[in-house]
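Hello,

Our lab assistant flagged a job as stuck in the queue for most of the afternoon. It eventually completed. Since we weren't sure the result was trustworthy after the delay, we are filing this so someone can double-check. Below is the sequence as submitted and the structure that was eventually returned. Let us know if re-running is recommended.
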Amino acid sequence: MKKGSKDQLLGLIRDGQQMTLGQQIHLALVLSLPAILAQTSSMLMQYIDTGMVGRLGANPSASIGLISTSTWILGGFTAGACSGFSVQVAHLCGAKDFSGARKVLREGLTSVLILSFFLAAIGIALSGPLPGWLGGSPEIIKDASTYFLIYSAFIPVGAVGWAASAMLQASGNMKVPSIMYTAMCALDVLFSYIFRF
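-- returned structure --
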């Protein structure tokens, strides 16, 4: 199929027209492969991070492990908000209401940013006592607290990135988020090496 075939196939869906099995398979591959690449690079980045921290010793690994569930909780709220708005964008793009989709995009980014600042404030406030509440031993509490403080402070940056990526994917643009995730993985490895070693 031609270069613009993805847009043509998405147009068929938006117009409610029938697609052949070959067109459906082609569209599924074109839309899913970049998402699979992005997810794979994200998982790879987590494995590399874990390996690099593990080389620093048991205490740094334990410090991050102690508060990892807390980072997942804060990240989960952010991801949930991003998903909710991206579903609305997808519906509006599917209905060819692109001005409505842009409005939801603006509202979504603003809402996610406000929520992320709220979550960041909670995380920063809890970063001191949280490792102790979770039963951390004295030798890892300081590192766990510092890590959670830094993670919490940067929640708004990550949240806006996740929201923008989700909105692009909802509009049918799978390529840019995939490139961004892959670049983020490469930069993460580079900066992790520089700042850790």
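-- support follow-up --
The delay was a queue issue, not a problem with the job. The result is valid. The first helix runs from residue 5 to 14. The CA atoms of residues 26 and 40 lie 21 Å apart.
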